[in-house]
């Protein structure tokens, strides 16, 4: 195998992720306004928005390991997708994610509330992820000037859209939120929890660590076409990602010896 550093993500990858984040964000709003102007119906906005959110989430995650908030444009830092009236921005989520990698699936993990405690507790955590993460972050770190301004902008945007578009916005919001919850549950709970004694950190009959999620070939390829390589490979080989966060998601199968 070649030197693993050959597979590290670089500045070109970071720029690509940043462009994708902006493009997917604008795409989501384009789809929404096409919906409210009756160019598309609810049966089209559901799959398109779900795909865009999923692709946005992985680009957002991959960028955490490449760029600090100060290196990014204001839109990427703001996170103007209305997942909740109460939400964090890039700087705060990156800080949380770095803590997740330092204390993966342990009690000290800032993401423990949607990882630990069994399937139901983790699902409840995923359902309230934005609100809980915001509350916990403010409780621990307080309010900075930038955070307060961006928090206000996100909340204002949410309520302006709600007041302006009513039920149409609520339908779109539900699609965004349900998609996020499903992805969050898979990418945090399922990859870090096992009901048996396989993991590194034992908790009764459960165990925690970072586990790969194998997918049959017949499912991998359509998933890649729909959601992209990064989503599929970062989920399947999440154990390798945690072992070396600098490896680009697209190369994880090669490191795993599957290519």
Class from helix and strand fractions: mainly alpha
What best-fitting shape do the alpha-carbon axes yield? globular
Q: What is the beta-strand fraction?
A: under 5%
Structural domain tally: 1
- Main sheet, how many strands, which sense, barrel? 3 strands, antiparallel
Radius of gyration: 18 Å
**What is the subunit organization of this protein?**
single chain
Query: Distance N terminus to C terminus?
Result: 11 Å
Topology as H/E string? Answer: HHHHHHHEEEHHHH
Could you explain how this protein is built, in words?
There is one protein chain. 64% of the residues lie in helices and 3% in strands. It is mainly α. The protein has one domain (4-255). A 3-stranded antiparallel sheet has the order 1-3-2. Helix 1 (11-36) runs antiparallel to helix 2 (42-64), helix 2 packs across helix 7 and helix 5 (119-127) packs antiparallel against helix 7. It starts with 10 loop residues before the first helix and ends with a helix. The model has no long low-confidence stretch (mean pLDDT 94).
């Amino acid at each position: 195998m070649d030197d693993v550093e050959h597979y590290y993500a670089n500045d070109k990858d970071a720029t690509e992720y940043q462009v994708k984040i902006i493009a997917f964000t604008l795409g989501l709003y384009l789809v929404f306004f096409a919906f409210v102007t009756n160019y598309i119906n609810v049966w089209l906005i559901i799959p398109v928005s779900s795909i865009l959110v999923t692709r946005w989430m992985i680009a957002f995650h991959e960028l955490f390991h490449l760029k600090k908030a100060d290196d990014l444009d204001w839109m990427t830092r703001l996170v103007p997708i209305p997942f909740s009236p109460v939400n964090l921005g890039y700087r705060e989520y990156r800080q949380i994610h770095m803590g997740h990698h330092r204390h993966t699936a342990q009690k000290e993990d800032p993401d423990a509330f949607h990882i630990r405690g069994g399937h139901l507790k983790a699902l409840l955590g995923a359902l309230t992820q934005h609100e809980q993460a915001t509350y916990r972050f403010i409780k621990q770190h307080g309010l900075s000037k930038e955070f307060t301004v961006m928090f206000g902008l996100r909340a204002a945007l949410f309520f302006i859209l709600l007041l302006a578009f009513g039920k149409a916005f609520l339908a779109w919001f539900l699609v965004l939120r349900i998609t996020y919850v499903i992805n969050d549950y898979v990418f945090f709970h399922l990859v870090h929890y096992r009901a048996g004694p396989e993991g590194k950190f034992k908790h009764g009959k459960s165990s925690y660590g970072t586990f790969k999620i194998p997918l049959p070939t017949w499912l991998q390829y359509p998933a890649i076409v729909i959601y992209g390589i990064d989503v599929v490979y970062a989920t399947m080989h999440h154990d390798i990602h945690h072992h070396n966060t600098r490896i680009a998601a697209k190369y994880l199968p090669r490191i795993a010896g599957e290519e």
